[in-house]
Each structure stands twice: as C-alpha cells, then as structure tokens.
C-alpha cells in the first residue's frame, strides 16, 4: 500500500524534505496521502515530518492545498499544541490564495492563539501572523489593536511577554506601511525601549532606525 510505504519513508529521521515536497507538488495522490498522515497519524516522527513537507509545499504552491482548508482548520482546536502550530502555519500560508474569504470565518479562532495555553504556540501564531497581514490587510487595524495590548491579553509571565513583544514588533513592522494612522504602532514601539528582553530592545532600535522615528 502507498500509505504503508509513505509511513516508512517519511518517518525516517533524516528524510529528504525537498524530495518529498516535489513529490507532493507533482502527484495529487501522494499529496492527499501525506496530508492524511499529517492529520491522523499519531506518531510524532510521521506527523511532524509530514508537517515540514506540507508547510514548505504550501508556501510554494498554496493553491494546491486550498481545498483542504477545513481539514487544517480542525487543527486550531487540537489538544496537542504541535497540531495547533501546524494549523496556524499552513492556514497562514493559504491566506495568499483565499479567494472565498474563508479566513473571515476563522479569524476569531485564529487570533485566540495569541494567548494560547502554550507560549511557543503564541510565538508560532505571531510568526504566521506576519504572513496573514500581508494577505489580509482588511484586518490590519483590528490586529494592531489586539497586539499592542499584549500585557492585558496574554497571561504569560512578564519575562515571556517581554520576549513575545519582539515577535509583535515584527508583525507591526509588516503592517506599518499599510496603514494611515501609525501613531498606535509608534507609541507601542517607543514604550518597549526599556524592555526586559534584549531581543525586544534590539527590535525596537531596528524599527526606529528603519522608519526614522
């Protein structure tokens, strides 16, 4: 069976991800099988390697994966944070081809992960929010209002919130030239100049220099 062969091959520790990506892009049967393994297989080496492959493939040709949108939406509420990360990442990739505006239906569920139970999933959310805001500029103002209130919204310890702000700044940088009212972003950035996080302080300096604030 193709499924059994795929499991054996894709569960290898040092798989050739690029080779698998090309197979997934070229062959719909293999593409469907790998997505199925990603969604249903319980072995971490299988579903995580499938994730590496599908993540990379869906960045290259997101249009091939758009029909699986609802399958990936299911992962947003998964009890396993790795699976939530997978859903956030692949859906982020697919926003570039969201011709049916399916993201409108999941916006609130997607943005909930800004305050996910797992701090690393919140970091994953922000990493992928950089992609989302490129493709969904209609949400720019709303997203900014959420992100700049990290201290009120997120329940993480202060040191983690300070680190999270470095990722927030990257998203705000992506949004900065897309909006007319820049004051909210500028005020937030300047307030982080004395952050506990060296990484965040570095991002503040880079942002200020880039935009001549």
Describe the 3D structure.
This protein has 213 residues and is an all-alpha fold. The chain has 3 domains: 1-60, no CATH class; 66-133, Leucine-rich Repeat Variant, CATH 1.25.10; 136-213, no CATH class. The chain is 70% helix and 0% strand. The chain contains 13 helices and no strands. It is elongated and about 55 Å long. It starts with a helix and ends with a helix. The mean pLDDT is 93.
In short:
The protein is elongated.
Oligomer class: single chain
Determine the mean pLDDT. 93
Largest sheet: none
Radius of gyration, whole Å = 19 Å
- Spans with pLDDT under 50 lasting ≥5 residues? none
The portion of residues assigned to helices is 55-70%
List the helices and strands and how they pair.
Elements: H1 2-10, H2 17-26, H3 28-40, H4 44-60, H5 69-74, H6 81-94, H7 103-111, H8 119-135, H9 140-147, H10 150-153, H11 158-176, H12 183-191, H13 198-211
Helix pairs in contact: 1-3, 2-3, 2-4, 3-4, 4-6, 6-8, 8-11, 11-13
Keywords:
3 domains, 13 helices, 70% helix, Leucine-rich Repeat Variant, 213 residues
